[in-house]
Structures are given as C-alpha cells and as structure tokens.
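Quarterly update, task 2.4: adenosine-5'-triphosphate-bound model.
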Amino acid sequence: MVKLKIIPELIRLLKIIGRECAKLKINAYLVGGPVRDLFLGKANIDLDIVLDKDVKTVLPSLAKLLSAKYIYHPQFKTAKLFLDSLYIDIATAREEIYPCLGSLPRVFPTTDIKKDLFRRDFSINAMAIKICEGGLGELLDPYNGWEDLRKGKIRVLHEKSFLDDPTRIIRAIRFCVRLDFTLEKNTRLWLKKAVSRRVFSQISSARLGNEIFKLLQEKNLLAGIKKLRDLCGLKIIHPQIIFNRRWERYFPEVSKWSRDFVQKTSQKVEEWLIYFIFLTVKLDKDALQELCDKYELGKNNRLLVMHTYELKRIEEAKLHNSKYSQLFNLLKPIFPETIIFLIARLENKSLQKKLFEFLVRCSQIRLYTNGERLKKLGFSPGPIFNKILATLFLAKLDGKISTQREEEDFVKETFLR
Ligand code: ATP
C-alpha cells in the first residue's frame, strides 16, 4: 500500500474527530474525492466525512473541540463545520434509490458504509478510509477503486449508473481529462448507450449547466470539450454550438492573458466564463439569454456574458485608434473577462498589448479625491460629485494627471472656473 502524505494540521483534526467518534461508538470515514486525491499524492485535501450514525449526535461536542461553528441540515442529516481556515463536510451515511431514470434519488439513512459508497459515481470516488483515534486507519474499497486509480480508469459501479444520473456523463469526462485517465470498456459502452437514449433531456438544464461549468474550470478544458464533442456532441449544450478549431489558438491565449492579469493586479478572473463566451459566441442574443436563464447563471455573470455579446463586433480599427478614455467609454462597464475575451481573439500583437495595458490600468487606478475632499474644495454633495470623479478617472486613465496635487488642480480648473 502507498504511503500517504497529508498535512499535519489535517491529521490533528482527524485525530480529534476519530477520538470523539470512538467515544460515542460512531464509525467515521473519510470518503470520496479526498481519498482519491490522497492516493494521487495530494497532501492538502478537503475533509469529506461520513458517519454511520446521525451527524447531530456528535456535532455539538465536535464543534466545541474544534472551536468551530456549524450548520446542520436536518432534512439531509448533513452538516458543515467552519474552522478558521477551512471547513469540514460531515454527512450521515445514506443510500439512494432512483424511482425513475434521471429523477432525483430517494434517500435513506443507512448504517452500512458500503451502501453509501455504492451510490457514488465512479469506483475511484467510492473508497473510504476509517478515521480512528490515531488519524487515518484502514481502507474500505469494496468496488476496487484503488486498482482503477492505478490503472488510470474511470469506471461506474453498475450498468444503470448513467441512466440514473446523466450528469455522471459529464463528470466522467471531467475526471478523464483532469487525471488523464480513460473510460473503462463497459463504462464507455454504457455511457454511449445512455447518450443515444437522449438521457440529458431527463435532467434539469440547471444541473447540466452546473456540470458544464465545472468542466470549463478544468485545467485541460479543451481536451474536455473535445471529449464531450466526441462522446455526446456539443449540441447537448445548445443545438447551434459546433466545435471551432480556432479555440485551439484562442484558449491558450485566454489562459496566458488571465494569468498575466492576475499576476499584475492580484484580482480574480473567472476564466471559465470566458470559455463559456467562446462556446456560445455564435448564438443570437435571444438564444444566449435563454441559455443563461436555463443554466441559472448568476446575475453578475449573466450581465458579463450579455455585455460581451454586445461588444464582440467592435471593429479593430476603433480599438486601435482610441485613447484609453475613449476605450473606457466604448467598452464600459469594464469586466476583465470581457476584455480578455477581446484580446484573445486578436491577431495583432500590439493591439493585444494595448488592450491589456488598458485593462491593467483600469484595475489599478485609485483616486486620491473622494466625497470628503470635494467638500473641502467647496463642492456641495450632489450629482456633480459623480461627474467630477468620473472625469478625474478618465483624465488619470489617459495619464494627464497622476498625483493628489494634480488631481486637485484639475478639479479646480475644470469645475470651479
Ligand atoms: P472535486 O475535486 O471536483 O471537488 P469531488 O470528487 O470531491 O471532486 P464533488 O462534486 O465534490 O467532487 O463530489 C464529492 C463526492 O460525491 C464524489 O467524490 C462522489 O463520490 C460523490 N458524487 C458527486 N456527484 C455525484 C453524482 N452525480 N453521482 C454519484 N456520486 C456523486
């Protein structure tokens, strides 16, 4: 058996959990993703724990021992413990029965951990390690997940798995590309059979969208999209989406410019949204709006996607010939994702650089002037404040002014004369 690396802080927590559960005669297990990740050599794992008794029997004492806050969901018998720098998911073991294909399962508590493992998607995610007083104990691997990990295989636990839950099709593709694994022979066959039965029509678009978004967050997402194309067809996202060979050129650009932007500004970029925009770029406005609705994209993300839609036809010449302040007015509101989308499609390297520098500058500019300072300069609060601050911002963007003194002189000269 392999030697597991695990960071000392997690071992400390596992020991506390192990001790408390042993005291209450509860069996506790580390399950699913973290077990897989431990065997893959990851030292910092999520703590995903299953108990063979109702979580609420141990929750208050555990929370006290760990100095944690917690939320308990009585309808699912699951809980989340919030520690200073991490959280722990704890669930009561459960088994699932699918009343009909694609529907959400009926869930029952169970004391048999094997049943809890059997409801899981793939063998590599259906292993558990006993948590004991000394930390991690024996491995429970009733469906041979360890062997599949070693062989690099994604394998479902039974023939009806993809019919029970078609989101597992996208999950299978995701794990294949993440781990550079292949589908086990029968799994591939059952997956293709499920696709030919149009199983995706049986699940909600929101669930499908959620899995597609997760696929777009994988490092090797282009391989994921290709695999999705080959196994399911991109039409499962939308009938008008077809694979575009240019993505092979654009996607590395997105990743490069996003990385540069984060490095320069320490701001976050939702890279996956840029890939989503690329996938859906050929849709007309109504279709895109409808897809965003169906996939229940959050309000800000939807705003960003629709805004990019409006901007995508701006001519290169216009971008070339504009000063930063004009670019700002042309492209506002400025979302890094939108600008990176525009940059990634450009062939012209100097224009790419110009747009990137514009974006960085927009993100870094801070005004010394604020409402308080304007009052001190003699202005009365009102709509004029916004006008002054916006004018100052544009002047600063164009490099006309820089210091606090220059800001004040500019305000006086422009608005007090
Ligand atoms: P990631 O690193 O992407 O978070 P993960 O395996 O932890 O990987 P989750 O989506 O958080 O993924 O799921 C946690 C566990 O729940 C999985 O390891 C798997 O055992 C189980 N699981 C998740 N989704 C399904 C599903 N659709 N069907 C069956 N089991 C699932």
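Highlight for this quarter: Residues 247-265 form the longest helix (19 residues).
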